Every structure is written in structure tokens, then in C-alpha cells.
Amino acid sequence: xxxxxxxxxxxxxxxxxQQMLIRADKxxxxxxxxxxxxxxxxxxxxxxxCCKICGMGPCRLTKExxxxxxxxxxxxxxxxxxxxxxxxxxxxxxxxxxxxxxxLKAVANGTAEGYRIKDVAKLRNxxxxxxxxxxxxxxxxxxxxxxxxxxxxxxxxxxELAPVRRAPEKRQAIWREQGVxxxxxxxxxxxxxxxxxxxxxxDANHLMNHAIRTSLTDGxxxxxxxxxxxxILFGTPAPLLGExxxxxLKDDMVNVVVHGHxxxxxxxxxxxxxDPEIIEYAKAAGANGVNLSGICCTANxxxxxxxxxxxxxxxxxxxxxxxxxxxxxxxxxxxxxQALVNLADKFHTKVITTSPKVKITGATHxxxxxxxxxSTAKQILREAIDxxxxxxxxxxxxxxxxxxxGFSHEYINYMLGGTYRASFRPLNDAIMSGRIRGxxxxxxxxNPRGQQDYLHTHVAKELLKxxxxxxxxxxxxxxxxxxxxxxxxxxxxQVGPGLRQVCETIGMPPVLHMGSCVDNTRILTxxxxxxxxxxxxxxxxxxxxxxLAPEWMSEKALAIATYCVASGAYVIFGGTSPVSGMPDxxxxxxxxxxxxxxxxxxIYGGKLEFIPEVNEMIQATLDHIDKKRAALGLPEYDPDRFxxxxxxxxxxxxxxxLADRRSAMYGVAAD
Length: 671
Description:
4 domains
């Protein structure tokens, strides 16, 4: 029987995406959405009950008491599969950090074309954390030593990762007691693969213990390194105005979309696009210049530092090409669909791969290296400009939203206290008083098996009504941006009264954009600083906070979730669990699920749960926040304690007709 295909409205809540999906249907072109409809998910593999790590299988366990050919039980198989996914996710993020560390080294030694150290203050502050001398030393000298330290974290074989010292002291003690402090990034990833090889580790608890250790190489290793170096080289983000959605593409300009995760290339393309030589080259080709936009985490990187617009999140990569207006989609690593090349052949778009690690059959490959970064960026832009003449009819959705991205933890300090009193004290006080009920981080991917952006934005709207302050990264942040939720004034009438008071007083939006997926480490830094500020316990697991990945799909998401749990956070995923088993058929298939929830909570104070139903997800978030408030002895959350605004005059003005309000505020006569 044929599977029912969803309508464009059922596939996405985004009107721009819907318009492109309607166009895809008219043109008879498949997308990730239609392929998801046509490809039934494998219940056995999806539940973690299929083992294919040796040639005796694959072994599919479908009945109680079943084992693999080697005798492996469902618990061992599920644990092995999950550990391997976490190792892959940690490897992807940490390899990003490795490349950033090598770039920092090259910049320090003057061998990276076009780069310079943009944030010397951040460089000095980070160096001090590792006892690197800074007085009387040039930035390049400090950067060279910091780069050596960071590079060493990958190959280190014994001891502890240096960045671990940045976690709360109590948290470090827990990790040492459990024996999960990473020795070296590469060592833990390799050991994860070794332990899960056929005939090795066969105890689920022991395997999952190493899952924690491996994930920490990401959150308190590779990703933290990547964020630090990106800030040092490209500037620590601060709020600026940007735009998001497919409407940022321009009919009269050469459109270049950068997609992937590494900012080294995209930052150079931004610089090269402003080169007078490139602008003149574009005009000679009949365009009014080069228009850059981003997809996925690269979008977040250049959005929050350069104000370059975001064309969309993960599921927009095919839809951007389908506008017919994209001359080149320039990709590096991670989250890049192989379907792009065949799709691009139906239009005029060139898909250009750039990483030495990634090639796609049929794509143009222009390899990128830091030693020739600016020259390569100009070469790529010329390729795109030369393609402008091949453009046919276009259909660009007239849909875009403004947003304010760029809330690094450094800027949040400034925002809350100014230059001379920078502090998280006002945030802690607002939580302690109950004006802010708690904090939630909404992060992660899109998944075409669900309705694009719905879970991200629905959860966000409902939590804001309950006075929960939101921080967002990655594709989840772009989902909120496309809905207009990342502006200070947007939707404050839909925000709880206490949170609204805080936002009005400080002048901040109730949803803070904090960057790309690796920048989840900024959230850990914020939580650590909240602990150090006092009043909310002495470790991360005591803070009224929850992490959510409502539309997850990648192994990186599993690695992020695990290091957040190890740091003390309650993490909720939407969708299906990769270790769910089949409880209606197997009574002994829930051990790994219990380990990652009950077992990890007992040890680390954090837990990972998969909750597919959106209202249950929201309720679980609020219940956890309230439980943590009660444990700290904070006042019970009561939305009626605070009026809609802390300013009585503003309350009175809100009740006035618009014309009278203008007269009262500005002395302008009513029309």
C-alpha cells in the first residue's frame, strides 16, 4: 500500500518553505520531505536493536530473549550503538575545534592569508584561564602558546583535558570520582570505537560510563576550543540586526549561499565579497554585486558576527536551490545532503565542496587551506559570478524576518550590569525572586519526519508564557528567527509578566540567540557563571534549567545531550529514542533507557529523556524547573505576583488608543 504523502503545510510551518515545496511538486522534484514520506523508518534499527558491527550479522533482535550470533544481548547492542553515535558526534565537533586551533597557530605565526586576531581581550582572558603569561607579550606570542595548548588536547594520552578546569569545582569532583574526566580528545573517541568492536565491552553500564567520558571531550573539549578560537579570530559576538529566511536572496545580485559548520572559509568569503575587484567583476557580469547568505550553523557564525542574513536552517538547503536564484552553494563539513548535486543539475546552481575531508560526487571541488584563504575565497566567488549568466526563471519567496543575534556570555554580562558592574547577579536575582521561572535552552536540528520548525517554535511560545527565559543555538535558533521571535519588542505581549518586566528593564529579547551548535558551550559557560554568582546552588544540576532538542536528527545532537547531562542538565529530545526497544514485545529492552535517565540522574544530577508528545515535553520542562526551585527554597512560581509591566505609566499607556498614546508620550497632537 502506498504511503500517504503530506501536504506542504503538513511538512513545514514556514510559509517560504511551503511555497518552495509547492514548486517542487509542480516540477516533480523530490526533497528530504518527500523522501521521508516515501522511506519508512526501520523500527528495529531506529530502536537500537540491530547490530552490524561484524560480518556475522546484521543481527536484528525482535523477540524477548533474542541475542546476536555472538550472544550479544539487546542491552549490549543498544549501548554499543549509542556509544558509537556519541563518539561520531564528538569526533565531528572536536575535529572542528582541531582545525580552529591549527588556524590560530597559523595566524600567530603569520602563515594564514587574510586572518588576524580580532579580539585581543578574549585572547588574554582565555590565556589567563590556563596560566599562560600575558603581561608584556604580543597577542601573537600569547596566541601561539594558547594554540599549542589546544592542539595538545587532541593527542594527549594521560592526565586531564585542560578546559575541564572551567567547569564548577563540584562538577569536576563528580567526574573524577566517576573516572570520566577525558584524558585526550582523540584517545576517548578511539577507545569508544575499540570498546564497541565485536567481542569487547559487553556490560551496558560500563559502556555508558565511557559514553559520558567521550561526550565530555566535545562539550568541555573540542567545541569549547572551537568557540574560544572563533571569538579570538573573528570577534566575540554582540547583538546586531540581521534577517532570516529565503526572502534574503536577491534577484538582481549573484547569490552565494555558504552551508556547513566551519567559519574559517565563510569569514573569508564575507571579506572577499566586499573586495572592489569582486564587486566590479560581478557588475561586469550584469549583476549589482554579490549577495551572501547562510544555511545551517555557518549561517549562525556569519550572522552573529557580520550580520550576513540566514537563508534558513537545515531543511532549507534544497529549498534555496529551488528558488533558481542561487549561483553557488559553498559547503564544507556536516549536515550537507548528497541530494544537493542532483537537485542543482535541474537548475543552474554550482555546488562547491571545499574541505579536504569532504567530496560529493558530481560537485565542483575547490580545496580550501588557510595559507591561501583569501585567494581561494575570491576564486570561489568568481566561479559563482561566471555562473550568473546561466540563471533561468526564479521564484524567491517574499518572506524574511528581522532578528537580533549575537548574545555571547560576555555580552550577557555587559547587558546585565554595564561596563563597570558586568555580572550575572540581576539574572540570578530575577530567578530567585520568581520574575523568571527558569531557563530553557532550545537547540538542535530539523528532522523532515516532523513538521519543520513546529516543535521548536511551539515549545518556545509556551515556555515564554510561563516566564521561562530562552537561549537558543543552531537550527533551533534560526527556526525562532524565521518566526520573528528574536527581536526585543516582538511578542512581549505573549510573554509572562515577570519575564516581561526583566526584558523591559534590561532591554533584552526573551529569546537569546547564542550561536551555532558548537556554541552550546556558551550555555555551559553561562550556567557555570550562574553557579559562581551564588544563590542558585553550587553546581549546574541545582539551577532551574532544562535543555531541549525537539527536532533532533544527528549524532552530534546525541553527543551534545550526553555532555550536558554529564554537566548536570536535564535534557529532553523530541521524536523517537535510539534505545527505545520494543516494550510491547520485549520486557528486558529498557535497561539503557533507564541508565540514561534514572542512572545518570543519580550520579550526575542530569538525565536524558525522549518525549515525542509536545505538550508532555513542555510540562516535563516546567515540572523540572519547579522541582529545582523548590529544592533551592525559592518562592513557588506565581504569575499573578507581577503585573504586565513594572512601570505604572507604561501600564496606563497600554490601555490608551494609539493616537492618544502618541500624544501622551511625545506631545504629538492626536489626528
